[in-house]
Amino acid sequence: MTRYGFIGLGIMGSAMAANLARAGFDLTVWNRTPGRGAELEGLGATVAASARQVVADSDITFAMLADPAAARAVCDGDAGVLAAMAPGKGYVDMSTVDPATALAIEEQVTRRGGAFLEAPVSGSRKPAEEGSLIILAAGNRDLYDRSLPALERLGKKIMHLGPTGNGARMKLVVNMVMGQMMAGLCEGMALAGASGLGVPDLLEVLDAGALANPMFRLKGGLIQRGDFTTSFPLKHMQKDLRLALALGEQSGQPLFAAAATNELFKRALALGLGTADFSALASAVDGFRRP
Ligand code: NAP
What we know:
- With 291 residues, the protein is an alpha/beta fold.
- The protein is built from 12 helices and 9 strands.
């Protein structure tokens, strides 16, 4: 029986690891801040003392970490992933990072005889809980095939997008679009209010036609109520915009609207909204008033 590991038990990682544990997989977990594995222990998972121990005790280890710095940090040092990496072992990084980070970790893993797959995800807390994420894998085909039984517990759509780096690229493009949609929604709600329209009327109009989408439907209502309970931390959305802009620069692609959106997210960060949901962007929009 394949032994699985999971490193990074934040909003997404804890829900994803719980799905693997509920499926009855042999699972070992670790999180930098202790205590986050308690619920998983109740589901039958083993909590390890370090990332190294997770890899040592697993055939395939998944990671779901904040950003490129975190993805690299768990790999390094005596207690890190690489210290236990060896032939026959697989490492699947599902964090949202840039292509260079994915390639650098792949190089370090393969140098020790292991196999690497990148597999960032689209979908937030609820899809993570429901096992209905969209998984954007790229890289090692053999590890992809070996990971499928677990990936199928985590996602409703699983794609293999080609060579390592393409998963990160696709994820950054998708989140660049999403960040701009959120900025558009927040400014639209602000303009509706400022010009004397009813914000609920705006949301009804948006939902009735070609602009209808699950994100506007869900977040529009929550923004109206001022409920910014975190599903997707705003600081991670700004990180994704920053990385998408860098990808644009590397690709020679001008990104005017994304650059402006990034400035708005930077303002939200400066207002101390980094750990709130990314819909708290509304609070950074001039003139935004909750009805
Ligand atoms: P989160 O709740 O902030 O969790 C981040 C995780 O990274 C925590 O386990 C944290 O450990 C760990 N971490 C941070 N810095 C670290 C370091 N230096 N060394 C070791 N561990 C470190 O974030 P999340 O929402 O689960 O997101 C995780 C990743 O998925 C991010 O790349 C995000 O962009 C992406 N993502 C998120 C969503 C979403 O809706 N939330 C959707 C799709 C993709 P501690 O507990 O010790 O801080």
